């Protein structure tokens, strides 16, 4: 059986502390009695207030608990002075509350102040200093600040050893935490020395535990199991099994065959289905008999079985835990609620969302009855229930769950961690329902509070920043998206380092955003440096290297460095072919990018065989009438157009339009594209009236069908203005140019490059500006070609523009199969699944971002 999980962490998990209304009332009464007996400033009164604060914390009254704890600290400073042990003890209790509420910024500041001031006043090895140092190390470890955490854990261990001696339980605990930190750092940073030191620390802790507590003590058993798990991770299978086999023999002799520690040791060594089945039966019996520590043992087994994909065994034990609690305590007991939520989480891992939803609903109702609607545990239960409904695709029901909570309990001025988590879930649901404005408003609030509560570099803050950036990208608001994505990249760079995989991948996301605007020399230098690092770290044929190479080629092209861009994109095409094959979605995508550049550089003879190959590949994969094939044929038509093969171009474009009308109907986006391609071919032959009629008719049908202006109707108007100018119809052209500019401002925004180009076109027609003036607002490096058409100004072929621009983020993300780290907690429904994408038609790569 795989036992590579940290056994000590899994078994030594603290139980959830809850407090009822009666417990809070009793604690309040104790404070009143202490005040009457001893006075407000007496130490016994302060102790009673600290107990009340802890009770309020457990009851979910976070703000009152913090306020009371701060009052106690202030009173201690006034009564005993700022350097008295009782003052430092009060400050320590405050840090505990801050940590439990995940107010990481205030916690870290207060804890560091406590450590420094207490060490100065009472000595470096005072128990409060040691406790606070170890606690701060744990918090930093949870935030993946492993280097700082290791140093603090090492300090705590050395101070414990000096103060308490080597054979003290407190020293053993500090060794354990240092070893776990080293092991985690070794796993995350692939550091063999760190893992080896962790093993040595665990051996030292085990030896001391056997001397101090005895070979068969529960704590000793856990340390032995943790050491065996570490050795198993290191590949020392024989040593791990030998160690656990010796332990199993002692457990059997001293504890008996059915003791939880004996069962766990058997589970560690179990390999066959028969052995696993025996473990499950013994665990269920131990649970029924109520043996000591059986709950933590079975919880560990459930986790291990689930990690191995043995969901049947895991579910049997999870159900047994729930049924045992129901028999002992009833439906509304805190332990029963906890077991029900664990079963719901397991069902979700199994993919049984209906069962998970049922358990979540029952757990939520129990929490509302027992703890009230505003208890932090209840808020978390609302969040988890909404998430499982979201995963089921029941978006309206999930939204209603969120709205019901916030309608009854509006967001406070200083929401706690669990309220912010629910708000984030609500925003995710609203985004999926395309309620972008409200989703943006809620997540912006989440981000504002996360910055205050957790700091700019906390993973939850970074996730919120990245999520907002992605939301703006999806809406095409690139100027708003870029600062957020840049901030995410800087945060990862500070926390993870300049050459960490997460930093490099986030850098590529930043590059994708930068490519949507005017590119500067600094941008190209940044991308070139990033590309060199990615190739050096990942290798030339790694997915990230190929994707970033493609992005760098696009930026070089926008800078006018055409020869460099052509050479790099050709290299990227070959690498992509060698990795993915000729008929893969990602291969076709990068070929489309190459084709667009060749056309922009007017290398039409080089572009023609590539366009023909693209058309043949798409027809083979998707069929002649598929949108992918139609777009590829339109692209070939434009290439023919520039080769002056005008009849061929018109024939190809007319055939595409006929098939598009037959398959997709009038007024659709697909028909709009084909109409634009044919209109350009007609205008090139001087057939301006036919081109004008075709474009104006397509515009009216598209606007009527889609209920107003959009990017596609804007593109039609832009082409129509161009045709009218060439036909010498200046007044008509000016009327449509004015209409185009207003539509661009409404649809795309004032700062979009198409809007700026439309404004320039209108000014030229009015005589306010001459084409080519020094102050012209044009898309950088756009080709000024008499046959320019198809909207976005990066290529003469609308199909290539559509392939290069809107879907770039979608397709590169899909090809990489990536899911952002910040969303790993709950990414279902938010990111494309790689396997699913590979099964889709190639059209996913070639359709625009709205399709």
UniProtKB/TrEMBL annotation:
<dbReference type="Pfam" id="PF13374">
    <property type="entry name" value="TPR_10"/>
</dbReference>
<protein>
    <recommendedName>
        <fullName>Kinesin light chain</fullName>
    </recommendedName>
</protein>
<dbReference type="InterPro" id="IPR011990">
    <property type="entry name" value="TPR-like_helical_dom_sf"/>
</dbReference>
<dbReference type="InterPro" id="IPR053137">
    <property type="entry name" value="NLR-like"/>
</dbReference>
<dbReference type="Pfam" id="PF13424">
    <property type="entry name" value="TPR_12"/>
</dbReference>
């Amino acid at each position: 059986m795989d036992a590579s999980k940290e056994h000590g962490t899994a078994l030594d998990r603290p139980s959830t502390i809850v407090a009822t209304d009666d417990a809070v009332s009793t604690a309040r009464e104790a404070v009143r009695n202490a005040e009457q007996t001893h006075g407000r400033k007496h130490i016994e009164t302060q102790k009673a207030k600290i107990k009340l604060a802890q009770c309020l914390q457990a009851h979910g009254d976070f703000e009152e608990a913090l306020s009371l704890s701060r009052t106690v600290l202030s009173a201690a400073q006034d009564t005993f002075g700022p350097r008295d042990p009782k003052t430092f003890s009060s400050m320590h209790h405050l840090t505990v509350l801050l940590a439990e509420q995940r107010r990481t910024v205030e916690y870290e500041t207060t804890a560091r102040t406590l450590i420094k001031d207490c060490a100065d006043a009472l000595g470096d090895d005072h128990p409060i200093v040691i406790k606070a140092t170890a606690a701060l190390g744990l918090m930093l470890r949870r935030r993946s600040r492993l280097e700082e955490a290791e140093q603090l854990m090492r300090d705590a261990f050395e101070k414990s050893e000096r103060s308490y001696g080597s054979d003290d339980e407190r020293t053993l605990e500090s060794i354990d935490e240092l070893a776990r930190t080293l092991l985690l750092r070794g796993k995350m940073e692939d550091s063999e020395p760190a893992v080896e030191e962790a093993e040595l620390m665990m051996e030292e802790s085990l030896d001391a535990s056997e001397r101090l507590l005895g070979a068969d003590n529960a704590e000793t058993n856990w340390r032995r199991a943790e050491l065996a798990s570490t050795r198993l991770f290191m590949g020392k299978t024989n040593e791990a099994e030998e160690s656990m086999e010796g332990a199993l023999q002692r457990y059997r002799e001293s504890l008996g065959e059915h003791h939880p520690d004996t069962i766990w040791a058997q589970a560690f060594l179990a390999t066959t289905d028969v052995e696993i089945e025996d473990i499950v039966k013994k665990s269920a019996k131990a649970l029924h008999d109520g043996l000591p520590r059986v709950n933590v043992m079975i919880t560990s087994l459930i986790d291990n079985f689930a990690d191995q994909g043995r969901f049947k065994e895991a579910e049997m034990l999870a159900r047994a835990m729930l049924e045992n609690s129901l028999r002992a305590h009833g439906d509304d007991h805190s332990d029963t609620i906890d077991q029900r939520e664990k079963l719901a989480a397991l069902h979700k891992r199994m993919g049984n969302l209906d069962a998970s939803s049922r358990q979540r609903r029952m757990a939520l109702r129990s929490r509302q009855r027992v703890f009230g609607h505003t208890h932090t545990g209840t808020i978390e239960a609302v969040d988890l229930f909404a998430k499982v409904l979201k995963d089921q695709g029941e978006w309206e029901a999930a939204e209603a769950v969120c709205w019901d909570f916030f309608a009854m309990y509006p967001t406070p001025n200083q929401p706690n961690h669990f309220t912010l988590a629910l708000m984030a879930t609500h925003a995710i649901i609203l985004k999926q329902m395309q309620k972008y404005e409200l989703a943006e408003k809620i997540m912006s609030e989440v981000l504002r509070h996360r910055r205050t509560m957790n700091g700019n570099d906390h993973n939850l803050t970074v996730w919120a920043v990245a999520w907002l950036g992605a939301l703006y990208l999806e809406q095409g608001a690139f100027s708003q998206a870029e600062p957020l994505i840049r901030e995410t990249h800087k945060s990862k760079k500070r926390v993870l380092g300049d050459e960490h995989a997460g930093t490099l991948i986030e850098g590529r996301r930043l590059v994708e955003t930068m490519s949507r605007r005017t590119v500067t020399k600094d941008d190209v230098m940044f991308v070139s440096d990033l590309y060199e690092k990615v190739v050096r770290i990942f290798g030339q044929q790694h997915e990230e290297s190929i994707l970033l190479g493609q992005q760098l080629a696009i930026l070089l092209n926008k800078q006018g460095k055409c020869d460099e861009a052509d050479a790099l994109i050709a290299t990227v095409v070959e690498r992509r072919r060698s990795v993915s094959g000729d008929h893969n979605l990602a291969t076709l995508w990068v070929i489309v990018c190459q084709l667009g550049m060749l056309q922009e550089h007017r290398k039409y003879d080089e572009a023609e065989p590539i366009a023909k190959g693209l058309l043949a590949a798409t027809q083979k994969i998707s069929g002649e009438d598929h949108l992918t094939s139609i777009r590829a044929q339109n692209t070939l038509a434009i290439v023919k157009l520039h080769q002056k093969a005008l009849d061929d171009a018109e024939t190809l474009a007319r055939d595409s339009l006929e098939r598009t009308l037959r398959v997709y109907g009038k007024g659709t986006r697909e028909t709009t594209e084909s109409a634009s391609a044919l209109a350009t071919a007609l205008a090139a032959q001087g057939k301006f009236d036919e081109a004008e009629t075709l474009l104006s008719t397509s515009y009216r049908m598209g606007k009527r069908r889609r209920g107003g202006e959009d990017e596609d109707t804007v593109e039609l108007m832009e082409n129509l203005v161009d045709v009218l100018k060439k036909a010498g119809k200046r007044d008509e052209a000016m009327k449509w140019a004015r209409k185009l500019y207003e539509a661009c401002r409404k649809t795309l925004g004032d700062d979009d490059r198409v809007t700026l180009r439309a404004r320039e076109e209108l000014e030229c027609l009015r005589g306010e500006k001459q084409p080519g003036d020094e102050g012209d607002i044009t898309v950088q490096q756009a080709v000024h070609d008499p046959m320019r058409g198809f909207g976005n100004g990066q290529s003469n072929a609308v199909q290539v523009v559509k392939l290069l621009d809107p879907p770039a983020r979608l397709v590169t993300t899909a090809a990489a199969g990536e899911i952002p780290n910040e969303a790993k907690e709950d990414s279902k429904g938010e990111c494309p699944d790689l396997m699913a994408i590979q099964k889709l038609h190639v059209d996913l790569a070639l359709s625009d971002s709205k399709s």
